[in-house]
Design brief:
By secondary structure, this protein is an alpha/beta fold. The protein is built from 7 helices and 11 strands.
């Protein structure tokens, strides 16, 4: 399937405070390799992806170039740029750096279990709907809580999804959504990029199933789970 040029923006500017480590979580080791290595490798191995832009901490650009890109011979990484104060600032910086593509994929570098199959599936969704994300139906009952942590509602579980990355977009659509967001003074917390397109472009999001294993490594418990998943995946 022809996509036009596809650029992947991988976000690796987080500090990982919940991990309780002095090392940013994306550089912690899993089975001998950095968490970020696995994320980059999946996009490097995906035939549909033409270019990768890494968005990292300003002080980590040289480290990322030497210890991730050069060390592992990643050929699709064209730019390593500094991120911003908030996640949406880092995404916007990546979008401005990806100025000649047709579609863009946005991925959290702390999700090392992403696969080529997931990337291709979400990209195909974006080709039809402009705005697509991977995720999985939730398995637990969900409660909505008030400020006193009292349950106020129990949504129908069959309608609920846990949203993951990568997320894929028509490049002009996601760029314009971010521009409109930055033009206003919005108080609604925007926690992912599909929200940007829903709020500011009035476009619905296509959901495609990825994998329950595509976890975001945030806590020490996640490290252990990711190690187990990687051992099984590599086997």
């Amino acid at each position: 399937m022809e996509y036009g040029k596809v650029t992947a923006i991988i976000l690796a500017a987080g500090q990982g405070k919940r991990m309780g480590s002095s090392v940013p979580k994306q550089y912690l080791k899993l089975e001998g390799h950095e968490i970020l290595y696995y994320s980059v490798r999946a996009f490097e191995d995906c035939p549909a992806v033409d270019e990768i832009i890494l968005v990292t901490g300003g002080r980590e650009i040289e480290y990322c170039q030497k210890e991730i890109v050069e060390k592992y011979g990643f050929l699709k990484v064209s730019k390593i740029i500094p991120g911003g104060a908030e996640r949406y600032d880092s995404v916007y910086a990546g979008l401005l750096a990806a100025d000649d593509c047709a579609y863009v994929l946005i991925h959290d570098g702390a999700r090392p279990l992403v696969t080529v199959e997931i990337i291709e599936k979400v990209l195909e969704g974006a080709m039809t709907y402009d705005n697509c994300t991977t995720g999985m139906p939730v398995k637990d009952t969900i409660k909505v809580a008030d400020r006193e942590q009292m349950a106020v509602e129990t949504p129908d579980r069959s309608t609920l999804w846990a949203i993951h990355t990568p997320q894929a977009f028509s490049y002009p659509v996601i760029l314009e959504a971010h521009r409109r967001f930055r033009e206003g003074d919005y108080r609604v917390p925007v926690t992912d990029d599909t929200m940007m397109v829903e709020m500011f472009m009035r476009k619905r999001t296509k959901l495609v199933e990825g994998s329950y294993r595509n976890i975001k490594v945030t806590t020490p418990d996640d490290i252990e789970a990711a190690k187990a998943f990687l051992r099984d995946q590599e086997a």
